[in-house]
Amino acid sequence: MLNERMVGLGTQRSVIRELFEFGKQRAAEVGAENVFDFSIGNPSVPSPAEVNETAERLIKEMDPVVLHAYTSAQGDAGVRQMIADSITKRFDFKVGPDNLYMTVGAAAGLCCCLNGLCNPGDEVIVFAPYFPEYKVFIEGAGAVMKLIPADIEAFQIDFDAFEAAINEKTKAVIVNSPNNPSGCVYSEETIQKLAEVLNKKAAEYGQPIYVIADEPYREIAFDGTFVPYLPKYYNNTLVCYSWSKSLSLPGERMGYIVVPDQVENQNLVYAACAGAGRSLGYVSAPSLFQRVCAECCDLTSDISIYETNRNLLVNGLREMGYHVVEPGGTFYMFPRTLIEDDIAFCEKAKDFNLLIVPGTGFGCPGHTRISYCVPTEVAERSLEAFKKLADYYKNK
Ligand code: PLP
Known about the structure:
With 396 residues, the protein is α/β, with parallel strands linked by helices. It is 43% helix and 12% strand. Strand 5, helix 9 (188-205) and strand 6 form a beta-alpha-beta unit. The protein is globular.
């Protein structure tokens, strides 16, 4: 008898993957240039040249036995020192190498935190709209996801619903800002209020409630939008970071967890995350890219392209009558669908070769996610297809 949950996870293709496959088939029929694939969040701009240059230099100059060896389970000490220095400088928040644990991307970071913190039956709060893998990761840790409905006016937090959801089983809250799929950034006021509520509730229940800050999009913020560094606002915060998006390196699988000194029983919480990494079989993060990312950790890919695409699409869609909350970052936007049924809407969009993802899968029906990490020329040409889709519903 196999593990039914795992069989299910391994056989059900996600809606996004289905769309991606459909896109490939459609491209063969009508030509790739006529398909507007906004389904997947794969960065469309190359890594900065320094990434490849650093990798080449390390391969040429380092002793291969060292370069390709296992590092310490928590990551190479020199690597953690460089990243800790960068965090301390950039966020004016002191961390050292012993606060960092290198991970195989943010996904592994989240799994290490969740498995390290949660006991069976614990609850983890997630705000809609949310990255659907959270449910898989939370359940994988034996915990239960509690979803807070979206604040669809601004994509901040519905605090009444949030407070009502916290109880003695609440172990953690996942905060993802800048957010996939809305693109919105939580304001400083939102973060302050979140900290206030959590401090109050933790005191009420006499136990810590952790924030897990999932931050792969931290650097992708536009017009100088301020992205608060959560550990500065709430002590029991663990940060999961990744270079998948900021350095366009999703395939290299590199990230880290920060467990700041301010976390209650920091050494035990850090040990729990490390223990979870061990139990999940991560061993240590890839050695070459630990070193590459450490050397390039103050750089980003050219995110101005995402900002150009955002402006072009937000303005274009609004002119056609779509309702869009302007994203402050990422390469996603989350407009309302022109009919209530977002699944039917996205199905209809396919007739115009537009591949967009229904909001239902992100816990927020009546919306659709557009991943605008595409060449600007594609975003520009897609406007005609969005117009045809809007006209279809106007004339219906
Ligand atoms: N968290 C969010 C919100 C994401 O959108 C993603 C990837 O798309 C991840 C985590 C996982 O990122 P990584 O590639 O670093 O594992």
